[in-house]
């Protein structure tokens, strides 16, 4: 009986909260049926990535190519990670979601976005042993108050049951924002920016990891993180992001 009363009390509290603070679309703020969702109109503008796509970097194809599902860039210069997947194309429709999570002080968006990431990255998450978020430098963390990649990683950890290990990868050098930089400048900008702490080296060795970030643009940051984890002895590194550009710069 007490459990029923407790459940009734929780349901009443949710009902009261919905009356006082009705759930709103995370983008346009239109009233919706449930929290942490989008209205149908906003959802319809998003471009979710689906097959066919490059089996390595996850680049979507307009149609399935003949032969192996591998983009020209991965065929010519394979990336250091084993595979990469993203839920959305990074475009005018998805950019506001990324911006609000990253700069708009809306970490609650991470739950909605991580659900999409889990669907897109189910193969990357399967068989993995830990999730590692791309770290922020402490100065940027003070300015933003939270690391959006860590927020996504924590929600993914809850959804998948995988442990989240932010302490396994640190940013030891403050870098300038990547926005507006060329591909070569991005690579130079993040060179030697990341490290695996000495205390984490025996924990990383031999592990199958999922490296999580919000957006893949040129891939420079994710590749720099991957190389550091490889040198630390990680057995496999799979990249999972919320969004990615349809073409790299």
Question: How would you sum up this structure, described in words?
Answer:
The protein has 249 residues and is of the alpha/beta class. It has two domains: 1-45, no CATH class; 55-244, Rossmann fold (3-Layer(aba) Sandwich), CATH 3.40.50. It is 39% helix and 13% strand. The protein has helices at residues 2-20, 40-45, 72-76, 95-102, 109-120, 122-125, 138-144, 148-160, 183-190, 201-204, 220-231; strands at residues 83-89, 130-133, 170-171, 194-195, 208-216, 236-244. The strands form two sheets. It has a four-stranded parallel β-sheet with strand order 1-6-5-2, with helices on both faces. A two-stranded antiparallel ribbon has the order 3-4. β5 (208-216), α11 (220-231) and β6 form a beta-alpha-beta unit. The longest helix is centred in the N-terminal third of the chain and has 19 residues, at 2-20. The N and C termini lie far apart (62 Å).
CATH top-level class of the largest domain: Alpha Beta
Alpha-carbon Rg, integer: 19 Å
**Treating each run of at least 4 consecutive H or I residues as one helix, how many helices?**
11
Beta-strand content: 5-15%
The beta-strand count equals: 6
Structural category: alpha/beta
Shape: globular
CATH architecture of the largest domain: 3-Layer(aba) Sandwich
* N to C succession of SSEs: HHHEHHHEHHEHEHEHE
Major β-sheet annotation: 4 strands, parallel
Q: Percent of residues in helical segments? A: 25-40%
Whole-number average pLDDT? 87
Largest sheet strand order: 1-6-5-2
Q: How far from one another are the termini? A: 62 Å
Low-confidence stretches: none
């Amino acid at each position: 009986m007490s459990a029923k009363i407790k459940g009734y009390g929780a349901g009443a509290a949710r009902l009261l909260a919905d009356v006082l603070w009705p759930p709103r679309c995370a983008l346009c703020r239109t009233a919706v049926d449930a929290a942490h969702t989008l209205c149908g109109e906003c959802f319809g503008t998003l471009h979710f990535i689906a097959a066919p796509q490059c089996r390595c970097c996850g680049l979507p194809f307009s149609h399935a190519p003949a032969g192996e599902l591998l983009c020209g860039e991965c065929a010519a210069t394979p990336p250091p990670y084993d595979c990469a997947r993203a839920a959305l194309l990074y475009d005018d429709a998805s950019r506001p979601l990324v911006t609000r999570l990253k700069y708009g002080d809306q970490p609650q968006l991470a739950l909605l976005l991580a659900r999409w990431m889990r669907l897109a990255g189910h193969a990357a998450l399967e068989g993995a042993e830990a999730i590692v978020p791309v770290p922020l430098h402490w100065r940027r963390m003070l300015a933003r108050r939270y690391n959006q990649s860590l927020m996504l990683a924590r929600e993914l950890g809850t959804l998948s049951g995988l442990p989240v290990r932010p302490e396994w990868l640190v940013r030891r050098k403050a870098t300038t924002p990547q926005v507006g930089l060329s591909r070569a400048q991005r690579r130079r900008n993040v060179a030697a920016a990341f490290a695996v702490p000495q205390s984490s080296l025996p924990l990383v060795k031999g592990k199958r990891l999922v490296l999580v970030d919000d957006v893949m643009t040129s891939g420079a940051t994710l590749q720099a993180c991957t190389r550091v984890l490889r040198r630390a002895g990680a057995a496999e590194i799979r990249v999972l992001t919320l969004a990615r550009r349809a073409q790299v710069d």
